[in-house]
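job 3f2a | input accepted
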Amino acid sequence: MEQCQLGNQLNENDGTVSPSGAAGSIVFTPELSMKALEHYYNDFPRFWGKYGLKDAYNLENHEPWYAKEYIGIDKGISMIMIENYLTGLIWKYFMKNEYVIQGLNQLNIKQKEENLTNIRKEEVKSK
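job 3f2a | predicted structure (127 res):
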């Protein structure tokens, strides 16, 4: 099998972290994601700007590095998944799409009775 010549073949990480990873995972790891986002906000003031958290940071270098940019695709996934965590709105409409339904049926994937939105609503009610 021929190896792909693109990408990080050595699986090395230079220490750069993007907040969109934590924000985009909030529906799967709400406690850990919230802790990470609060940590970014409270402990790294240079990482926060006019449009919220900047794109990335790296503390592994001699001089800590903070991106100056805000990247739209990262902001998009963060907003979509935070909305899903709070209300389930995006998933609700996505799961009504006929092509998604057909694909899930062809793959024999069944929807659970209790979904993340119902779980989140119960969490909010109990507070």
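job 3f2a | The CA atoms of residues 113 and 119 lie 11 Å apart.
job 3f2a | closed
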